[in-house]
Amino acid sequence: MIDRKEIERTVKEILEKSPKRNFRESVDLAISLKGIDMSKPKNRIDESIILPSGLGREIRIGIFARGETALKAEKAGVNLIITPEEIPKLGADKKKLRALIKDIDVFIAEAPLMPAIGKSLGPILAPRGKMPEPITPGGDILPLIERLRKTIRIRSRDRLTFHTSIGVRTMSPEELSNNVEAVLKRIEPRLERGAQNIRSIYLKTTMGQAVRVV
C-alpha cells in the first residue's frame, strides 16, 4: 500500500502548484499497471468504490421505476425517472437516449425491468458503464441513493492506464487523501501481485500539471 504521507504530500503539491480557475476543477487520479494481460476479462478492473469524503459535487442518479418506487425516488431527489413505457421508445431513439443519459452518473432500476433495459438500452448503456444496479420494487431506496451519492465506478476495460475523479479542488488535502487511499485499497487486492503490478500513480487538477505519487 502506498504510504499515506506520500499521498498527502502529492495532494498538497498539486493544489499549491495549480493556479486557481474560474470554474470548479476536479482532482483526478491516474493509475498505470504493468505485468498484467488486460486482454483477459478477469484481469480488468471494474469496481464501484465509496469515497469516504464524497466527490465534492452532486452525483446525478437516474432510475427506471414505476409507482411507489418512482414516488420514493422523486422525494429522494433522484435526477431522472424513466418509466417502463419509456424504455422501448428510448431504445428506438438512440440520439435522444444518448442526450438523456449524458449528465447521469449512475442508474438504478427495479429488477423486473432489467431484461427490457438490457434488450433496448444495453448497447448504449453497457459500453459507458451505466447499466443499472437492480433494486427490489417498493423497497427502501434512500440508503442506496445516499450510498450512490458518494460512489464512483472505475473501469479499466482492456487498457493498462485508467483515470477517475476523486474530488474537487475546493476539498481539503485530508479529504482528497482519504479518497485516494480508499481507491488504492480497493484496487490493489484486485491485482495478482498487488502494488507490484502498479507502474505509476499520478494526481492532477483539471487544468494543472500531473504530479507522480509513485
Characterization of the model:
- By secondary structure, the chain is α/β, with parallel strands linked by helices.
- It folds into 2 domains: 116 residues, Ribosomal protein L1/L10, rRNA-binding domain (Ribulose 1,5 Bisphosphate Carboxylase/Oxygenase), CATH 3.30.190.20; 88 residues, Rossmann fold (3-Layer(aba) Sandwich).
- Helix content is 34%, strand content 24%.
- The protein contains 7 helices and 10 strands.
- The strands form 3 sheets. Strands 8-1-9-10 form a 4-stranded antiparallel beta sheet, covered by helices on one side. Strands 4-3-5-6 form a 4-stranded parallel beta sheet, with helices on one face. Strands 2-7 form a two-stranded antiparallel sheet.
- α1 crosses α7.
- The model has no long low-confidence stretch (mean pLDDT 92).
